[in-house]
């Protein structure tokens, strides 16, 4: 596991972002919000139509709690790498985080090109964001079954 400011070597020895911390939240009694059902043909995803409302109501505070664990505030964050759970979910994230229009365009591009491939889709967003060689602080956020929210605080050093 990498510690703060260690980063990691990628292809060709390129350094990745430093992993500054992580934060996980599991909302109790929320299995009906998002999850998987085992059906005769395999797995069937379950999404509540309430996910955008849940993002609007909880993500501002949840991201603030995550950032506070390492002494950051929302004002310290320049880059948002957000799981593209859908067009309405991204709009809800923009509203909750009060980011300017266009901030989550990388997430929108990945959603348009690949669709929602479950929580791992955020890694496609991260890969695309890294191409821009960002500098400064960022947060990677994804949601998953249960209902859970995961945040990873990153320091980019292009």
Give an account of the 3D structure.
This protein has 158 residues and is α+β, with helices and mostly antiparallel strands. The chain has a single domain, classed as Peroxisomal Thiolase, Chain A, domain 1 (3-Layer(aba) Sandwich). It is built from 4 helices and 6 strands; from the N terminus they run E-E-E-H-E-H-H-H-E-E. The protein has helices spanning 51-68, 87-97, 105-114, 121-131; strands at residues 18-26, 34-39, 42-47, 79-82, 136-144, 148-156. The strands form 2 sheets. Strands 1-6-5-4 form a 4-stranded mixed sheet, with helices on both faces. It has a two-stranded antiparallel ribbon with strand order 2-3. Strand 5 and strand 6 form a beta hairpin. Helix 1 (51-68) crosses helix 2 (87-97). The protein is globular, with a radius of gyration of 16 Å. The model is unreliable at 1-7 (pLDDT under 50).
Produce a short descriptive summary.
The chain has helices spanning 51-68, 87-97, 105-114, 121-131, and strands spanning 18-26, 34-39, 42-47, 79-82, 136-144, 148-156.
């Amino acid at each position: 596991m990498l510690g703060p400011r260690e980063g990691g070597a990628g292809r060709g020895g390129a350094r990745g972002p430093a992993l500054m911390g992580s934060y996980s939240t599991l909302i109790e009694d929320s299995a009906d919000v998002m999850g998987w059902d085992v059906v005769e043909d395999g797995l069937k995803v379950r999404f509540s139509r309430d996910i955008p409302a849940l993002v609007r109501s909880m993500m501002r505070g949840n991201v603030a709690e995550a950032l506070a664990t390492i002494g950051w505030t929302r004002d310290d964050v320049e880059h948002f790498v957000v799981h593209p759970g859908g067009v309405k979910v991204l709009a809800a994230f923009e509203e909750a985080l009060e980011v300017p229009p266009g901030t989550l365009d990388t997430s929108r591009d990945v959603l348009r090109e690949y669709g929602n491939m479950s929580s791992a889709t955020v890694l496609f967003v991260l890969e695309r964001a890294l191409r821009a060689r960002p500098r400064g602080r960022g947060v990677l956020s994804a949601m998953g079954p249960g209902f859970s929210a995961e945040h990873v605080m990153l320091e980019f050093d292009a």
